[in-house]
Amino acid sequence: MEKRTKENPWVLKTPPGTSEYTMHIGEKDGKEIIVCTVGKTVLHYDYRCLADLHAMLKEHGDWMLLGSKDEKKETKEGTVEHWGRSESNPIGGWYGLKKGLRGRFGMYIPPLMEALGLAEVEHNKRNNRMRAV
């Protein structure tokens, strides 16, 4: 799987195509992380989320709503966002690593998975879904 650096990041757009952001692979506390930069905001996600989300989507076998939400907002069960913070996922909780900025998993990770050829993502104004390829 391709791993981009801070000097050569992926330049992505949110699923509705309304905002551009970058992602690259970094390191924190000796572990690989995904660094997501949206304007001046920097979010961190556990690198393992890519393989784990792909495996879950393969097992799910169909389209799944993204359901992107901020960290403090409740998520809808059965969405990618809900899974990304659920105690039942492979790491037992949040893939987002920065307290206060752990949400929006369902907004920023799916386009990266699409760029890596791991998923297909819809690009409608609302209620976008994804599925494994």
Overview of the structural elements:
It is a single chain. The protein has 133 residues and is α+β, with helices and mostly antiparallel strands. It has one domain. It contains three helices and seven strands. Strands 1-2-3-4 form a four-stranded antiparallel β-sheet, with helices on one face. A three-stranded antiparallel β-sheet has the order 5-7-6. Strand 1 and strand 2 form a beta hairpin. The longest helix has 12 residues. It is globular, with a radius of gyration of 13 Å. The mean pLDDT is 96.
Summarize the structure.
With 133 residues, this protein is of the alpha+beta class. It has 3 helices and 7 strands, in the order ββββαβααββ. The two termini are 15 Å apart.
Domain count, please report it. 1
How many distinct beta strands?
7
Radius of gyration: 13 Å
Percent in strands: 25-35%
**Overall 3D geometry?**
globular
| Measured distance between first and last alpha carbons | 15 Å
What class would the helix/strand composition place it in?
alpha+beta
